[in-house]
């Protein structure tokens, strides 16, 4: 194991223009000119996506360490499955891995996604929302405490792009606020996820942002996505957060409007997957998107006073008790995952759901929008682990 | 392996360069780190995708409703 880099003095407060940078040849090739020019002010690394290799290559580790030494490296988890009813050996291992990594890299903070993973095995499935109840709040708060105990730095959660209903969309910000409150945590506000919700539920930006605790936003994500035609609602298109295209104009406009509303913002991260960066043209567009993002941030910096942001350090580390679990929630999640992953049609999935233990419960499946159930089926079946 | 930029790409970058200002917080990387990244890229493989994940070849195909023209993504944000 490589020794942690010598820490440098903390940089001046500000907002860093950052890239989501993983061990991916296309991303690194696209980003290299920006790295060379010193314009990438911070890196976000999805530290749990390297399951296909046993060791981080030294050259990539050195790149991460260069940023960590300047307090400009943040970690972004994908696979913890924060809100699974059951506590698994894989989650325990995920925490062990995080604990080891934080000895190696001085992360400025660690984040994860909201939701539970549909897959029965780690590294399969996709995250979906859960009911916003006292039981799920307790579960999520317990898992966040464990994350914070493992990484010993600020922790945060990202808003989810997916929702089944408008009511759920409107309650998401408040529930995220309650989840992170005990750990003095923060939010990643993914503006493409917000864009998905504005479009898919026809809700105005101001109305939705008023429902988010924007003083807790320490990080913003921007990215691109794609459109999919709805089979259930003819003529309707669903916006999906596929991270594979250039950042749309609407998301840049959302960034410009949102920057002044987040007093504790520290990072704005451009995300794009390597699968969408295979051509020189797409790589150049990626750099153009970064330039536009950086220009908006610089414009905001030059026109606003930006006092030292909240650090979101834990006020006190509470002792960890027994792991919170919820057997009923776990059973419901398994049923839902199975239906979504195996249903041969939308109608079959709908009928199975109404005959399941989720009917007439806090899941409120009766209020799910047809085009979003259709999307959930599509996501779950796309990411289902294929038989070996 | 210096990444190259084609004529169309230059057009895009030139267009966006008007947005740039000089009040950012630069992050100077050493030549050793940058050089190692270039060498590393020559033997690098793709991350965030594993063998069992759907690949662009499997799902991309001819653009249609069932075979979207977009490559596949990481599942993280929930609508990928």
TrEMBL record, chain A:
Domain of life: Bacteria
Name of the protein described by the UniProt record: DUF692 family protein
One Pfam family matching this protein: MbnB_TglH_ChrH
Signal peptide residue numbers: none
SUPFAM superfamilies assigned to the protein according to its UniProt record, in alphabetical order: Xylose isomerase-like
Entry-linked InterPro entries: MbnB/TglH/ChrH, Xyl_isomerase-like_sf
């Amino acid at each position: 194991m490589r020794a942690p880099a010598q820490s440098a003095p903390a940089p001046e407060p500000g907002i860093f223009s950052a890239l989501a940078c993983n061990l991916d040849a296309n991303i690194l090739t696209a980003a290299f000119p920006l790295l060379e020019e010193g314009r990438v002010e911070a890196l976000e690394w999805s530290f749990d996506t390297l399951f296909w290799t046993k060791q981080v290559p030294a050259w990539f580790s050195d790149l991460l360490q260069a940023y960590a030494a300047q307090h400009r490296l943040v970690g972004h988890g994908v696979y913890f499955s924060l809100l699974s009813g059951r506590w698994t050996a894989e989650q325990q291992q995920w925490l062990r891995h995080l604990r080891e990594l934080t000895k190696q890299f001085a992360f400025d903070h660690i984040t994860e996604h909201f939701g539970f993973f549909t897959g029965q095995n780690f590294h399969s499935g996709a995250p979906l929302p859960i009911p916003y109840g006292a039981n799920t709040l307790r579960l999520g708060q317990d898992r966040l405490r464990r994350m914070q105990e493992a990484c010993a730095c600020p922790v945060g959660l990202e808003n989810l792009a997916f929702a089944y209903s408008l009511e759920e969309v409107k309650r998401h910000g408040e529930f995220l606020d309650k989840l992170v409150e005990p750990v003095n945590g923060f939010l990643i506000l993914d503006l493409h996820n917000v864009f998905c919700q504005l479009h898919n539920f026809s809700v105005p930006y101001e109305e939705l942002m008023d429902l988010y605790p924007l003083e807790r936003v320490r990080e913003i994500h921007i990215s691109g996505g794609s459109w999919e035609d709805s089979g259930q609602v003819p003529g309707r298109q669903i916006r999906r957060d596929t991270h594979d295209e250039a950042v749309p104009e609407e998301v840049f406009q959302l960034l410009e409007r949102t920057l002044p509303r987040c007093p504790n913002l520290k990072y704005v991260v451009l995300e794009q997957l390597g699968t969408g960066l295979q051509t020189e043209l797409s790589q150049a567009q990626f750099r153009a998107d970064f330039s536009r993002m950086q220009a908006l941030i610089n414009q905001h910096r030059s026109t606003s006073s930006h006092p030292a942001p909240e650090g979101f350090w834990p006020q006190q580390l509470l002792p960890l008790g027994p792991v919170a679990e919820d057997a009923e929630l776990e059973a419901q999640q398994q049923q839902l995952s199975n239906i979504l992953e195996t249903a041969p049609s939308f109608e079959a999935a709908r009928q199975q759901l109404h005959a399941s233990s989720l009917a007439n419960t806090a899941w409120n499946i009766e209020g799910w929008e047809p085009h979003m159930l259709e999307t959930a089926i599509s996501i779950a079946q796309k990411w289902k682990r294929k038989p070996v | 392996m210096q990444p190259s930029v084609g004529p169309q790409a230059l057009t895009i970058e030139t267009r966006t360069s008007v947005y740039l200002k000089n009040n950012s917080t630069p992050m100077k990387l050493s030549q050793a780190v940058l050089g190692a990244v270039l060498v590393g890229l020559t033997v690098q493989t793709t991350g965030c995708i594993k063998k069992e994940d759907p690949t662009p070849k499997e799902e991309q195909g001819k653009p249609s409703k069932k075979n979207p023209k977009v490559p596949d993504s990481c599942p993280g944000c929930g609508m990928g």
